[in-house]
TrEMBL record:
Domain N-acetyltransferase: 27-175
Protein name: GNAT family N-acetyltransferase
GO molecular function per UniProt: acyltransferase activity, transferring groups other than amino-acyl groups
PROSITE patterns in alphabetical order: GNAT
Pfam family, one: Acetyltransf_1
Organism ancestry: Bacteria, Bacillati, Bacillota, Clostridia, Peptostreptococcales
Keyword line: Transferase
Protein origin, superkingdom: Bacteria
InterPro entries referenced in this protein's UniProt entry, alphabetically: Acyl_CoA_acyltransferase, GNAT_dom
Source species of the chain: Geosporobacter ferrireducens
Length: 178
């Protein structure tokens, strides 16, 4: 596969998250270069394995969805990734397609701060609601989404991604974001 480099990533900083790790920034990815694209793909594959998004899926998401990265300001390493798309049936709703924090940094509150920074930006874009699905066995993610952020479990979908892959469908009203 060959992808032509377009231009450098615009520094559209959504929010600064200063913490123990360093000067963290949330970026809304509006363009990309091949190096950044590869780092985003590698990050997703490292977290999700074969289920991670490849270049063929990520490029259209950057161009037509919302892709956010969390990283230290002057470093190349991606610490968090979020991929969202607009709901076709309800244009005030977005769907959180992929969301992850680097495994070795999980449990430090970064997931909460990253997602709330994203939600503030989505609210500014006019979104009213965010939805997602989560594996019913993923207790840390459920605790983050439901208990810390305020998502509500709307239903449980059996075999969502095939036999034995049960998911909660969760929603969050963005008017709760301050």
């Amino acid at each position: 596969m060959y992808l032509e480099e377009i231009r450098r990533l615009p520094k559209k900083v959504v929010e600064n998250l200063d913490g123990d790790i360093g000067n963290l920034k949330v970026y809304l990815v509006q363009d990309f270069n091949l190096s950044l694209l590869k780092r985003m793909v590698d990050f997703g594959l490292n977290i999700f394995g074969d289920l991670g998004m490849d270049e063929w899926g990520l490029v259209p998401q950057i161009r037509h969805g919302n892709v956010f990265v969390l990283k230290e300001e002057d470093k190349n390493r991606i610490i968090g990734l979020a991929i969202l798309m607009r709901d076709w049936e309800d244009t005030g709703k977005c769907y959180l397609f992929d969301y992850a924090i680097a495994e070795e940094l999980q449990g430090q509150g970064l997931g909460y701060h990253f997602l709330t920074a994203i939600a503030k930006n989505l609210k500014e874009q006019g979104f009213l609601q965010m939805s997602l699905t989560v594996d019913i066995e993923n207790k840390p993610a459920i605790r983050l989404y439901k208990d810390k952020i305020g998502f509500e479990i709307k239903e449980m979908s059996e075999n969502e991604y095939g036999e034995g892959h049960h998911r909660y469908i969760m929603e969050w009203e963005l008017d709760q974001v301050s």
